[in-house]
Amino acid sequence: MATLLRIVLLVAVLSAMLAGGAACAAVFTVAGDGSGDYSSIQAAISAVGNGDEIVVQPGRYHETVNFLGKALTVRSSAGPANTWIFLEEQTRIINLNGDSTLEGFTITGGKARVGGGIWVTDGASPTIRGNIIEGNIAEWNGVLPAFGGGIAVDPLCEPVITRNVIRNNLALGDTQGFYAYGAGIDLADDSTAIIENNIIENNSTTDSGGGVSLGVAGVTTPVSIVHNTIIGNLAGQGGATTSIFGGGILLEVDSSATIRNNLIVDNDATATGQGGGIHFFSNGLQGMTYESNDFDANIPDDCAGLPGSKCSSGQFAVAPLFLDPAAGNYRPRSDSPILDLGTATGAPALDADGQARSADGDLDGIAAPDPGAFENQRETTRLSFQDSISLTWDGSINPAVRFELYRDDLAALGSTLLGACLEPDLAATGATDGTVPAVGGGSLYLVRGVDIASGRLGFGSDKTERLAATECP
Description:
About 5% of the residues lie in helices and about 30% in strands. By secondary structure, the protein is mainly beta.
């Protein structure tokens, strides 16, 4: 009888273990029209448990969101262009105080002294990925400074901030412009972060650190600022003070960081400030890695606060030649001088669009990453007709490269196989084609540099690799 009892008890324990193991993360939906499990993001966060996933349907969500210290995934189903969390400058939008993931939202209209858009606090280590964070404000409250119009990171926090667009955020100080830092991102003392593959553009502060500001950050673990496009940020907006530092990036005394493979372009610390591109409050680089960044058109200077040789040594100063900067397309053209100038050490495997890094953009047979958020994927760009039969395109920075021209019907855009060879082995960056498409139809053309990637035509907008239907001989 004792033996039988043992068997029964073992079965009972085993059943309990199986029941416990069956419990796993649950997925809940949010829809503003009431068709989901919850109608607001905050209601969902309040109800679910650690490890759960909240999928937010397209819509505009007028609310503040507090993660309540939980470890969750909160993501949109249709991306930031279709899913907004917004306010009208009433208060902060996101209190990110848990080890959570926030992905795929436009976050706009927040206002607070610290972190108008997102405040990372309570020692959290969240992931902030694939969002548009724009039009948020950090404002001096009459006593204490303003930090982080877009994102503010508190002491002891360690977020990963990746593949976001952080733009048009403000940090506003007192009547003299003082006491406002990090309009795009501010990292407080004793914090750290991984900041990679972001576009940080057109953020403005009345004091210092237009794009990114580091307090005494990264002391234990260096901050990683890698492969970002930091462009058009402003320090000293409308302020009466001349003590302006760091239009693109500001590093305070004793802050420590790896700053590598960034494009730091068109940032402004005003004519009387210092460090239009980057400013170091230090005479040395102890605990600092600073290499392979490209500076262009920063006012009044690219780098300040270090001896001149340290500011420029190991860096570049060339115009990056973006594909369409007016439309916010900061992918480098095929003739951009920045192709393959980056350092492979520590480079993320994918760029801001999720495409592979180190794509050998200059076609010299040696793959290396391009500085900035985006990688040229071996494609030639700016292909256009100059008249009814004459095609031209960008050349390559490698003069030895030759080109192949492919043509196909527009309907082929829906296929992985794309294009029949029209012209093989072209030395020129142009060709002619007098073929007239049928009425109601159209033709597409694609040019690629001839290299070891035989038959590969690059990637479509859906990140699917295109192969030649009929390869050039």
